[in-house]
Predict the structure.
Amino acid sequence: MNELAITVIGRDRSGIVADVAEVLARLGANLTDSTMTRLRGHFAMTLICVGPSAAEVEAALAPLSADGQLLATVREVTPDGGNASAGEPYVLAVHGADRMGIVAAMTRVLADAGGNVTDLSTRLTGSLYVVVAEVELPPGRSDEVAGLLTLAAAELGVGVSLRPADTDLL
């Protein structure tokens, strides 16, 4: 079985998710992880599936992008083996006046501390810029990282909070 990373981007319209999911189901591809969103009128989806070859999936998705409104890419990836993270889960929230470099500065603090961003969303509403990120931090480093984030936020003139993430209930 092949593990594939698939991206689909383009102008948003009704039915994109259904169209892609139906193509994958017809091929016998098992969709394992996905994220989908609309960004200022544009659709963006990334997913991981297991099943047919990359070439089969590319060919099956080609009709969806034939009119040039969508771009679909397929790439074979190496399975991660389901390794559990050694990091502790936190939620980072940043908000303030929009300015260049907010995401770069805050994620640099995390990376330099050995943290990993596992999910990140940003929104610009008027002049207010909001970042919400799920991050994994090395055990026992959250207070130190929170202090470094506070310093970086002060330089940018934005507010920041770092709190433990609630574990998902399935």
